[in-house]
Amino acid sequence: MSIPLFEEHALASIERVRQTFCGRGVEYGDTMRDCQFLKMKAVAGALGYEIKPEHFRALCIAGFGDMKYARLLGGYKDDSIIDGIAYDAFLAEEMKVLSGR
Fold it and tell me: Disulfide: which of 24, 28, 35, 71 matches 53 by Cβ 3.0-4.6 Å?
């Protein structure tokens, strides 16, 4: 018996998400762990805000997710969806950690 089409398609996309973020981690390094958000830190400081590194991670990834979905205003692009899934997954876990759950 075959699996439901929703599950088949969702699993295929999730595998593409995994392949994409695993490849980018090798290419870009561990920017989330290292909190290499130099411009964001500089702007926050100039505006008088002191933000904890783990809060930078949550804010940054939320911004990345917003940006990816906003790009769909220019038309469908698979990369925007695939990256957006990974950003949202990271944000969900980061918020879980930050809230102590």
Answer: 35
What's the DSSP call for residue 2?
P
- 87's CB contacts (< 8 A; 6+ apart) are 61, 64, 65, 68
Pair 44, 50: CB distance under 8 Å? yes
Q: Distance between CA atoms of 101 and 99, rounded to whole angstroms?
A: 6
User: Sign of torsion, CA 87 89 92 93?
Assistant: negative
Closest to 94 in 3D by CA, of 71, 68, 65, 70: 65
What are the extents of the domains in the chain?
5-99
Q: Is the pLDDT of residue 24 over 90?
A: no
- Flag whether pLDDT at 25 surpasses 80: no
- Residue 27's pLDDT band (boundaries 50, 70, 90)? confident
CA Rg, the chain, in Å? 16
H/E run at residue 67: helix 53-70
